[in-house]
Amino acid sequence: MGQVVLISTMGTTSPEDSKDPFGHIGFYKLNFEAELMASGLPFTIVKPCGLLDTPPLTTELVVGHDDDLTVNPPTISRADVARVCIAALQQPKVSAGLRFDLCSKAGTPTSDPDLAKVLQAAKYPWEVNAGEIVV
């Protein structure tokens, strides 16, 4: 089986948060993420903020982890989420094992060639290859 790309949602860091407008959906999405991560399948989990029906390529895409993105308003085009998912499937060596928040902000629109940089930026600091260690 090839790469699995799951579109989840931001807000699963504290799925039982009383401010969760979706009730217990975050709890179930978090469990689905955990099942996929434990399955042994190569995966990428994209966790977008609020989805909009707007054209792609009009905003700068930003990534983060654990619901720490402070973008206002916290929104992203559905088409931009799809672009990131396609890039993840096209670049499994970069995207395998990633689980990240995705949002957008005003700025230079993120082009298709720049999506590899978005995926690279989605890695946790300890996942970034800091170079070869010689012993």
From TrEMBL:
Upper lineage: Eukaryota, Sar, Stramenopiles, Ochrophyta, Chrysophyceae
Pfam family, one: NAD_binding_10
Domain NAD(P)-binding positions: 3-92
InterPro entries: NAD(P)-bd_dom, NAD(P)-bd_dom_sf, SARED1-like
Molecular functions (GO terms): oxidoreductase activity
Protein name as it appears in the record: NAD(P)-binding domain-containing protein
Gene3D superfamilies attached to this UniProt entry: NAD(P)-binding Rossmann-like Domain
